[in-house]
Design goal:
Elements (H helix, E strand, L loop, with lengths): L1 H45 L4 H26 L5 H17 L1 H16 L7 E4 L2 E8 L3 E5 L5 E5 H5 L4 E2 L5 E10 L5 H13 L11 E7 L4 E10 L3 H18 L17
Antiparallel strand pairs: 1-2, 1-5, 2-3, 3-4, 6-8, 7-8
Helix pairs in contact: 1-2, 6-7
């Protein structure tokens, strides 16, 4: 009887400790998983990440940590988990290969939302498309063109290409080339161009407008006309300044050379 009791006591001691260890692993693992989930949500909310994406990513991380905790607890009980892990790995690989394109778009969408190379309403050139950002989604983003066409662009294409955000800064520089005849006086042309820029209240004084002789081309002397404006005023100033230059040159009898045309004549 004493021998049997000792054997039972040994079995209880051996497996009881393993059970207690497994329970401890589960409790500690759940605590860690919950803490990590809260930390991820806090960080993403600070970065003003979309609430749907925040909940999705934090839940995936939480589930992943719990899966590892459960495997560790089962292993502590003496259950062979190698085959179980192999099955999970094979299933994950198969799913990953099947959804390779979608996962790439998802990862790119996460990067766009986190790092914010652009936001809704910005005028951008991204993924080979140019226009106003209409919506930034997890898998795709939509862009509205100038003529109001809605283009759906995969996020992976956007992140794999160069992104130009014309609305990122509060100010932009207007660049115009004004060509005049070789017979016109350089100083007079510069003064006229500077007066045109000075007469537009939308043009910023700092940095000051600039006019300089850019090049002496085949049929014209070209001046670089540069002025800083608020980003919202860019196109209005661009078109208005071009119009004022043309009208002022006409009024001052300054010649604007016509572009040379290449004419090819067939010879008999």
């Amino acid at each position: 009887m004493t021998a049997v009791w000792e054997q039972i006591k040994e079995i209880v001691t051996m497996y009881g400790l393993n059970i207690l260890a497994a329970v401890a692993i589960l409790i500690a693992g759940k605590f860690v998983a919950s803490g990590v989930r809260r930390l991820i949500r806090k960080i993403m909310r600070k970065r003003e990440v979309d609430a749907t994406l925040t909940g999705f990513i934090s839940s995936i991380v939480y589930a992943g940590i719990l899966a590892f905790v459960v495997i560790a607890a089962l292993s502590k009980l003496g259950i062979q988990t190698a085959s179980f892990v192999a099955i999970l790995g094979a299933a994950g690989l198969a799913i990953g290969l099947a959804l390779q394109g979608s996962l790439s778009n998802f990862a790119s969408g996460v990067l766009i939302i986190i790092f914010k190379p652009f936001k809704g309403g910005d005028y951008v050139n991204a993924g080979g498309c140019e226009g106003f950002v209409d919506e930034v989604g997890i898998f795709t983003s939509s862009i509205l063109t100038i003529d109001n066409k809605r283009i759906i662009v995969p996020n992976s294409k956007i992140m794999s290409d160069t992104i130009t955000n014309y609305s990122a800064k509060e100010t932009r520089r207007v660049d115009i080339i004004a060509g005049v005849s070789y017979n016109d006086d350089v100083d007079s042309v510069k003064d006229i161009l500077l007066k045109i820029l000075a007469g537009d209240q939308r043009i910023l004084k700092d940095p000051p407008p600039f006019v300089g002789l850019l090049e002496m081309a085949d049929s014209s002397v070209n001046f670089a006309v540069r002025a800083w404006v608020k980003t919202d005023d860019y196109w209005n100033v661009f078109f208005d300044t071009n119009e004022r230059i043309k009208k002022t040159f006409d009024a001052e009898n300054i010649s604007i050379p016509y572009p040379q045309l290449d004419v090819h004549m067939d010879k008999d």
